[in-house]
Amino acid sequence: MSPASNTTEYDAVIIGGGHNALVCAGYLARAGLKVAVAERRAIVGGACVTEEFFPGFRNSSCAYLVGLLAPEVIRDLELHRHGLEILERQGGTFSPAPDGSHIELLADKAAVKAQLSPADAAAYDELAAQLDRAATVMRAIAREPAPDISGGWGSMWRAARSGWHLRHLPAGDRADFAALMLKSLGDFLDERFDNAAFKGVYGFKGLVGNMANPYVTGSAYVLLHHVFGEVNGKRGKWGQPRGGMGAITQALQKSLESRGGRVLTGAGVREVIVENGVENGRARGIVLENGHTLRARMVVSGINPRLLFLNLVDTALLEPRFRRRIEAWRCRSGTFRMNVALSELPDFAARPGTAMQRHHQGTITIAPSLAYLERAHDDARHKGWSDAPVISMCIPTTIDPDLAPEGCHIAGLFCQHFNPVLPDGGNWHDHRDTVARHIIETIGQYAPNFPGAVLGYKALSPLDLEQEYGLVGGDIFHGEMHLDQLFSLRPAAEAADYTTPIRGLFQCASGTHPGGGVTGLPGWNAARAILGQNRRLA
User: Fold this and answer.
1) Average pLDDT of the chain?
2) Residues linked to residue 283 through DSSP beta bridges, in sequence order
3) pLDDT computed for residue 377 by the predictor
4) Looking at 202-206, 322-326, 429-433, which range is the least confident one?
5) Which sign, positive or negative, has the C-alpha torsion 168, 172, 178, 181?
6) How far apart are CA 137 and CA 228, in angstroms?
7) What is the phi/psi pair of residue 407, to 5°?
8) Taking phi first (over 0 means left), then psi (-120 to 50 degrees means alpha), and beta for anything else, what does residue 353 get?
9) Backbone angles phi, psi at 90, to 5 degrees
10) Pairing between strand 230-231 and 234-235?
11) CA-CA-CA-CA torsion for 150, 152, 157, 158, nearest 10 degrees?
């Protein structure tokens, strides 16, 4: 950016440099538009970045696994050509119990069933097949804009077309699909299984980034949200990019720049320029925090809806009902994120040894029962954080050793539940290290060598996630993924199709359909909607 110039003209400017913003920008540039991305931090990526957290140790700071990134995005934006390599993980999900037993979920279904009773094994076969079929429907629905139910006949037709995807399900599966959308996760699992450890693992799958009691109505949906992905053409697989999750957004930046797009870092946005003269005004650019103006025919927001409408837009331009909806937009995923530098691998009582084993190359989950998950939520709700937290651990150096010094390892910890609003009115900065040590000690109950192997760590409380990465309330999904904040209500009935009440202002972040996770689908869907309106904005 030249200091001699105060104004630059573009076809489109994107607010924020998260992965969905970069996907949207990449498609707009691919269509021949002149595009700029304005990112507040010194690097692009939003919550999908790789950073050094301890001398010599680098890891994904927030998002930590890839399995939902749309293959269309990888192909169309040529991410492999721009350096992206996705490494497939060999392990499954290993869940130790306090009594020294464990359960392990693997791609080999026979090996999973061998750990279950005959009745649970049969129910597992049924659930796995059901989720596979439901995933086909979810893939299709996620790739279509959610219809604006406040609109006319065209929107009603899009709603009917979305429902038409249910034809892929056998008639007997449709009620089960509805149950996944509407029931509590706990009830859904209790109806099918007796094994407490199995239900604990699947319960955590459905509570990732979801600060909810597993028995609250609608909590089963997040389980469905996490099954429609693929890695390297293999459905249902999860992997990690070589070099950490930042490799995805670095490849997206290179792809964008190869098509003439511009990325501005250290460029926080102060306001959206809205010109009067048409109903609700018309977006015509942005003003950066340094006073520089980027003029454009359209503005696209890659940030949380609350940040866009309550901080960057004059709220007087918004109808009272819409403003109330955004003010009430719930952002609370209950997440506490840690990266830990280790001198050796964890030695679990349930599977002893510090030499690398299969479970070290998968996900290690401390969630031994639904009752454990329920207590963790209740603790966080009433006391701020869990006495016995739910912990998901990945050890990326078992697959990508270059992330740490030779012989050392990294444990990436995704922990729940941690209330973004502390009940006593306290500040998370005052409690961060106390909670981090508590998490380390909790792992030590299952892997006694773990606390002594810790060389250093970086902990991110819900407040840190908000202040450093723009995740309001520490919400990794840019808004809770509950039934009243999904599909045509994400983020509002008047703004579910990536448009907004302000002409020329669009949205492309995870606060839009189909929601959170590193999918790229909100950005992809938004780009198609924007290009469809491009001529009318000329």
Assistant:
1) 91
2) 274
3) 96
4) 202-206
5) negative
6) 9
7) 85, -10
8) left
9) -90, -25
10) antiparallel
11) -40
What does the alpha-carbon distance between residue 44 and residue 56 come to, in Å, rounded to a whole number?
21
360 in Cβ contact with 397 (< 8 Å): no
Please tell me whether the peptide bond between 491 and the residue prior to it is cis, using omega within 30 degrees of 0.
Answer: yes
pLDDT at 93 over 60: yes
Structure tokens at 527: 């780009």
Least confident of 27-41, 348-362, 423-437, 524-538: 524-538
Tokens standing for 161? 């077309």
The alpha carbon dihedral of 338, 342, 345, 347 has a sign of negative
Tell me 474's DSSP state: G
The answer to whether the Cα torsion of 403, 68, 480, 256 is positive or negative is positive
Could you tell me which residues are beta bridge partners of residue 535?
none
Closest by CA position to 402, among listed 154, 17, 50: 50
Q: Are 27 and 508 in contact (CB under 8 A)?
A: no
Q: How confident is the model at residue 228 (pLDDT cuts 50, 70, 90)?
A: low
Give the helix/strand (H/E) hosting 282.
Answer: strand 282-288
**b/e 86-106 (16+ beta carbons within 10 angstroms → b):** bbebebbbbbbbeeeebbbbb
Pick the CATH number of 7-40+266-329+480-537 from 3.50.50.60, 3.40.1190.20, 2.60.40.1930, 3.40.50.720: 3.50.50.60
Least Cα distance to 238 among 361, 389, 79, 84 occurs for: 361
Which class for 257: exposed (0-12), middle (13-18), buried (19 or more C-beta within 10 A)? middle
Cβ(344)–Cβ(455) below 8 Å: no
Q: Residues 413, 396: contact at Cβ < 8 Å?
A: no
C-alpha to C-alpha distance for 313 and 281, rounded to whole angstroms: 11
Which phi and psi (to 5°) does residue 428 adopt?
Answer: -60, -30
Report the pLDDT value the prediction gives residue 538, as an integer from 0 to 100: 44
Residues 97-103: what's their mean pLDDT? 94
3-state secondary structure of 446: coil
* Res 220: pLDDT: 79
End-to-end CA separation in angstroms for the chain:
25
Domain locations in the chain as residue ranges: 7-40+266-329+480-537, 129-235
Q: Does residue 218 come out as left (phi exceeding 0), alpha (psi in the -120 to 50 range) or beta? A: left
DSSP string, 138-161: HHHHHTSPPP-TTS-HHHHHHHHH
Query: In which residue are the tokens 């609608």 written?
Result: 218
- Give whole-number Cα distances, 280 to 15, 181, 283, 317, 355, in Å: 20, 35, 10, 6, 63
What dihedral angle (degrees, nearest 10) is formed by the CA atoms of 6, 12, 15, 21?
A: -140
DSSP letter for 45, please: B
Q: Looking at 192-206, 255-269, 336-350, which range is the least confident one?
A: 192-206
Residues 6+ apart with CB under 8 A from 198: 103, 115, 116, 120, 124
CA distance 350 to 6: 63
Taking the C-alpha atoms of residue 504 and residue 284, their distance in angstroms, rounded to an integer, is 7
